[in-house]
Specification:
The structure holds 2 protein chains of 2 kinds.
Chain A lengths: L11 H26 L9 H32 L5 H13 L2 H12 L4 H8 L10 H25 L3 H10 L3 H29 L2 H7 L8 H10 L4 H24 L21 H32 L7 H32 L3 H12 L3 H12 L9 H39 L3 H30 L3 H5 L7 H10 L3 H27 L4
Helix pairs in contact in A: 1-11, 1-13, 1-15, 2-6, 2-8, 2-12, 3-6, 4-6, 4-12, 6-8, 8-11, 10-11, 11-15, 12-20, 13-14, 13-16, 13-17, 15-16, 16-17, 17-20, 19-20
Chain B lengths: L1 E10 L2 E9 L4 E5 L6 H8 L6 E6 L2 E2 L10 E4 L11 H6 L10 H13 L15 H15 L3 E5 L7 H18 L2 E6 L2 H7 L2 E6 L2 E2 L3 E2 H6 L3 H7 L2
Parallel strand pairs in B: 2-10, 3-8, 3-9, 6-7, 7-8
Antiparallel strand pairs in B: 1-2, 1-4, 4-5, 9-10, 9-11
Chain lengths: 519, 230
């Protein structure tokens, strides 16, 4: 055996291993730092409410999002209507929307002085209160109902058209249709949707920071933030971070157990031909679609309207914050891109590729906030963590983007290898020439999409930066939060609009750059 | 002389054994039922899959040589061109894998394209060409690489019968000009009769030693009769 040599670029393996090492250190060193600082001897009593609230809000958010997504996805799957494509695009928007901006939009609609409270006042009812659990759930459903809908919709669209034709021919009863089509789709997609949303809500810091608070509505991450920022109590912060880590890993392990989660940006093409013309279900589907469009669309419109008003009240320091955000976003995107390309290649050429991939995904299931806390404790004895706010934010944002990038780039890279690997090897195309002449042009669309997502998410992120930033350093989301904290809502709305425009603009530019080649 | 010595390829439950010598500077057709291992044999020669035994070309072992270092150009059934590179760039890869082509190189590319009947098409992208034209581009590249062994894995199978014979004739002409040794996988006996001097039959896990084409069809073996359905 061994009569044929695989001409793997000599650099690929060392580069990949170096990248793996970087990621492992980036995640494990903070975790070790946390373990060394946390006091042994059980979880202190003050932590229990935070754990309880974290689990409660994450479970409720997941269940409500998926439950509401079932009728919505079903309606989208079986109705063809004008604006269906627009509706599906609208459902993609919250994923890119910076969470602090979304909170502002939700407050404008559902808040104490929002549109609905004004309406209720007309009939003499008191204003709505969305601080606390209600508000956290509202924001989480706003973000994750669209995500759950897209995941379920992919399940329904995977059912072959012939099956529906058969059902129509045989005139199957609704109960039989449910057993044949809906039940298997839900069994396949619902568990992973629930777990993905649970994990996202576990570590959605910005929403809870803005809408939660107080002992009754404080998550573990919020408690970490308070311990670090206000009490400078490293031991409790470490203990909390370890609890967060354990819950996160347990959820990640469950998610792996229930199989692959959905692909983002997968085909959500045409609805199937529907022969059901009964009035009742049609009205019901219509009502669901209209309600969903309002639920997702109204806060977006509010952001636009308030933002345009707020443009006259833009605060000083806006452009400095914009430049800081942009630089952090670009640096973290470049870092994530370099790491994910090196890692994807390593997974491809290594004998233990599968194990490496699993290891990576588990590492990256660690919440960025946990990594941030660990880094804080790690750096504290040597330098002021506050002085390193921006580099650390860029690094943690890169770690956040890494799994998304790997998920998008890995299939593209295997496709190139499958279609053109032998031809390239036969011609001696290797190393940089292979990347420049073959890989890059072929994966350019995926590269554009992945870097666009990474840049937009980093631009809008309000997480680790809150742990580290001294008063004179701010990103756009942090500036917005500080303005909201001092009740300068008009200025905050103006900043929000600039922030959304920058996030969506970055995504658009990268994504368009990817499509530009038209290969 | 291309010598396959105790070659054995194992892929799961699939096995293929070959032990034979192939004459240089002529065309040998590789014929046999689909799934029999014709393509696998070529793929192993080109260095893409593992095997035991050895392969010698002009007395030198190919053991451990990367595909690009072997004295071999291979044409696949499809995906012979990179769709995002122009026709001229695809051919130019045969001269310089990093595509840093000198003026002289570019003249060679243009000459190779004229030789296969595609003069002036250098700037086109492959998707603007027909299936037959695309395989001509791949042939032009093989011409420039000047490797002594050509492996063709049914590259014309998707073409109509008239066009297929025309392409085979072009290949045979070019092969004769370069004095190359050509192994052509096909499942059509008329292809073999048309251009091959000898035939290797591959079936039931075995590649049989080459037989001169006329003798091969005049006195068909049991396996060949089964394959031809006679």
């Amino acid at each position: 055996m061994g009569a044929c040599a695989k001409p793997v670029n000599r650099l690929a393996k060392p580069l990949g291993i170096a990248a793996l090492f970087v990621v492992a250190v980036l995640v494990l060193a903070p975790v070790l730092a946390l373990l060394s600082r946390a006091e042994s001897g059980g979880v202190s009593a003050a932590v229990w409410p935070a754990i309880r609230f974290t689990l409660l809000q994450a479970s409720l958010s997941a269940v409500i999002s998926v439950a509401l997504a079932v009728p919505l996805a079903k309606a989208l799957a079986r109705r063809a209507f004008f604006g269906r494509g627009l509706m599906i695009s609208l459902l993609g928007a919250p994923f890119l929307l910076p969470s602090i901006v979304a909170v502002l939009g939700l407050l404008a609609i559902w808040g104490r002085s929002g549109a609905f409270s004004d309406l209720l006042a007309l009939v003499g009812l008191g204003p709505l209160d969305i601080y606390g659990l209600n508000g956290v759930l509202l924001a989480h459903v706003f973000f994750n109902l669209p995500l759950a809908t897209r995941m379920l919709l992919q399940g329904w669209q995977a059912v072959p058209a012939e099956h529906y034709r058969l059902a129509a021919q045989l005139d199957l009863a609704p109960r039989a249709r449910f057993a044949l089509f809906d039940a298997p789709v839900l069994r396949g997609a619902a568990p992973s949707a629930l777990l993905v949303i649970f994990m996202l809500c576990m570590s959605s810091f910005a929403v809870v920071l803005a809408l939660g608070g107080g002992p009754k509505a404080s998550t573990i991450e919020l408690a970490i933030y308070q311990a670090l920022r206000f009490e400078f109590d490293l031991a409790s912060a470490a203990q909390l971070a370890i609890v967060q880590l354990v819950i996160g890993l347990a959820a990640a392990a469950l998610a792996f157990h229930f199989g692959k989660a959905s692909r983002f940006g997968g085909g959500l093409g045409a609805p199937f031909q529907n022969w059901d013309r009964r009035r009742g279900p049609m009205l019901l589907d219509g009502a669901v679609l209209v309600l969903a469009a309002f639920f997702v669309g109204l806060p977006l419109l509010a952001i636009l309207a308030k933002g345009l008003e707020g443009l006259t009240a833009l605060p000083s320091g806006l452009w400095a914050a914009f430049v800081v955000s942009l630089v952090v976003a670009l640096v973290s995107t470049v870092l994530a891109l370099g790491l994910s390309l090196a890692l994807a290649r390593l997974i491809e050429i290594s004998q233990r590729g599968g194990a490496i991939e699993l290891f990576l995904l588990l590492l990256l299931a660690t919440s960025p906030f946990v990594i941030g806390t660990g880094l804080f404790i790690l750096i504290n004895p040597f330098a002021s963590p506050f002085a390193l706010a921006l580099p650390i934010t860029a690094l943690v944002n890169a770690a956040l983007a890494l799994p998304i990038m790997l998920r998008i780039l890995r299939p593209a890279l295997s496709r190139v290898r499958h279609d053109y690997g032998r031809l390239a090897e036969g011609l001696g195309l290797s190393g940089w020439a292979r990347f420049r002449l073959l890989t890059f042009p072929q994966i350019r669309p995926e590269l554009g999409f992945a870097t666009g997502l990474a840049a937009a998410l980093s631009m809008g992120d309000l997480g680790v930066i809150t742990l580290f930033a001294p008063p004179d350093v701010q990103t756009l989301p942090l500036l917005m939060y500080r303005l909201m904290g001092s009740y300068q809502m008009e200025a905050a709305a103006g900043v929000a609009l600039i922030l959304v425009a920058s996030s969506f603009g970055l995504f658009y530019l990268f994504d368009k750059g990817g499509r530009g080649a038209g290969a | 002389m291309l010598a396959l010595e105790n070659l054995e390829i194992v892929q799961g439950s699939f096995r293929l054994a070959a032990d034979m010598q192939l004459k240089p500077n002529q065309t040998t057709a590789i014929l046999g039922p689909s799934g029999g291992g014709k393509s696998t044999l070529l793929t192993a020669l080109a260095g893409f899959i593992e095997h035991s035994g050895d392969i010698h070309w002009q007395g030198e072992s190919l053991r451990g040589l990367a595909p690009a270092k072997r004295p071999i150009s291979m044409l696949f059934q499809e995906h012979n061109l990179f769709p995002h590179l122009s026709v001229a760039q695809n051919v130019g890869l045969g001269l310089r894998p990093d595509l840093k082509l000198s003026g002289e190189d570019q003249a060679k590319v243009e000459a190779a394209l004229s030789r296969v009947g595609l003069a002036g098409k250098g700037a086109e992208l492959p998707r603007r060409l027909s299936g037959g034209q695309r395989q001509r581009v791949a042939l032009a590249r093989a011409l420039l690489r000047q490797k002594p062994i050509w492996l063709l894995d049914e590259p014309f199978a998707a073409l109509g019968p008239g066009l297929r014979l025309e392409m085979l004739e072009l290949v045979e002409e070019m092969r004769a000009e370069q004095g190359a040794t050509l192994l052509l996988v096909t499942h059509a006996p008329e292809d073999a009769k048309h251009i091959a001097a000898a035939v290797v039959f591959v079936g039931a896990g075995q590649a049989y030693a080459p037989v001169p084409t006329t003798a091969f069809f005049a006195k068909p073996s049991k396996e060949l009769r089964a394959y031809l359905g006679k």
